[in-house]
Amino acid sequence: MTLVTLYQAEWCPFSSAVRELLTELGIDAVIRQVEPYPEQRDALRELAGTDQIPVLQAEDGRLFRGTHEIFVYVRPTQTIRQIAFVTAFELGHAIDCGTMNDARRAEWAAIRGFPAGWTWFPGCLCTEDNFGSGDISMVFANWLVPNGGYRWRSTLAAPPSGDQLNRLMPYLRPAQVG
């Protein structure tokens, strides 16, 4: 697989994850920006049968919709455990975006011992290894899928100790609504 086409948006975190993976694996891609609102994506709907992004089109024309399908396609040699880890990492972002706020992020950083001047979200299309959003996802994935087959990537803090992990549980298992 040498060249694929990615239908995506720069502001979309799922598109960003796919771009990061393609870059990490050295896969050349033609990047196609889609319209900002799903109801405006007639061309994407006609091509892929969906208005949701990201969509990856392989050289042979096969279409992969959403990060899960795309990740499985571009990493066909991954084990089930590795796929579970990658999925858990992305779920960590959902936990972050759905339950965290600035105060909770500051509490997380204090528990994890982040160095002064830390930032939560990257302001670029770079790796998240140096940001709080990457740390919470890495901790969540390692908690949910221990020994998931990937090295520790957060540069803000080492893997959490047992005591830290216990203190982080309220952030990893937020109270259910309703």
Give the topology, please.
Blueprint: E1 3-8, H1 13-25, E2 28-33, H2 42-48, E3 55-57, E4 63-65, H3 66-74, H4 80-99, H5 102-112, H6 132-144, H7 162-172
Parallel strand pairs: 1-2
Antiparallel strand pairs: 1-3, 3-4
Task: Describe the structure in brief.
The chain is α+β, with helices and mostly antiparallel strands and 178 residues long. It is built from 7 helices and 4 strands; from the N terminus they run βαβαββααααα.
General description of the model:
The termini are far apart. This protein has two domains: 72 residues, Glutaredoxin (3-Layer(aba) Sandwich); 93 residues, no CATH class. Strands 2-1-3-4 form a four-stranded mixed beta sheet. α1 packs parallel to α3, α4 crosses α6 and α5 runs antiparallel to α7. It is globular and about 50 Å long. The longest helix has 20 residues. With 178 residues, it is an alpha+beta fold.
Output the radius of gyration: 17 Å
Form type: globular
Helix-strand pattern: EHEHEEHHHHH
Strand tally = 4
Strand content: 5-15%
How many discrete structural domains?
2
